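Changelog note: in this version the structure field was regenerated for every chain. One regenerated record is shown below for reference.
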Amino acid sequence: MRLVLTPGALPRLEGAHDFKRFSVAVPAAAEDGIDALVAPIGDRAEDGAHVWVRPDAIRALTPHAGETAWATGFDAMVGFAERSGWTDAAGRIRAHIERIKAPAPVDADAFRDAMRRFASGVCIVAAGKGDARCGMTVSAFSSVSAEPPMVLVCLNRSSGSHECVTGAATFSVNILSAEQEEEAMVFAGQRGRHGPDRFGDIWQQDALGAPVLTTAHHALICASDSQHHSGSHTILVGRVIGAYSGNTEGALLNYNGALRQGNWAA
């Protein structure tokens, strides 16, 4: 197995069922920051070429930790390390450091062009109440799990509504209908309206604590579950605790840099 450590990202465990090898991979150019990279999982050894890794950190990084077969294999690996003198007094396991060269990112324009060709729905994510209401238009929205019901939205951290939405206990995801391009533009900051001024009579405050667009195609009320910074955005995961069915005649789509009407019967 291999622990992959990358600046700005959570540690990742690869090859969780491979108990015959153990290493820690870091970017080749990360020499000055290795100590900070390994801190969530252990400490860098004095020789500079190894890391003392906490077994609990490994267990926390795999969904297989509760499986009997995995636990048996992992315990056997730890036992072999102990007999070989590859553990310390605290029970941490010694792993050698691998230097990995990160591939260069794709050209930004090529990436944007590819993503513009992916048709997606358009939503308004909203939170707060009264004069503290806030919201933003997003197209990066996805189901995460059906049991329990969970979704995620990706929020640009440069948005003026970012801190308000991510700091709220509950938020709504309002899936826009085909005729709601104007609402999308308002919450995308294209109409010169800000904060609570974006909310009109077609919004109501749900009893679960989030504003809901009553004319939306559909709307979900979510309790904030977790947040992850990735690149320029925050990935906000919510547990769905309420749902509204609205206009079912068609949805607003974002395709090739433009908003389009997707009209079809439910």
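Spot check on this record: The CA atoms of residues 4 and 25 lie 5 Å apart. The helical segments are 34-38, 55-60, 68-83, 108-116, 162-166, 181-187.
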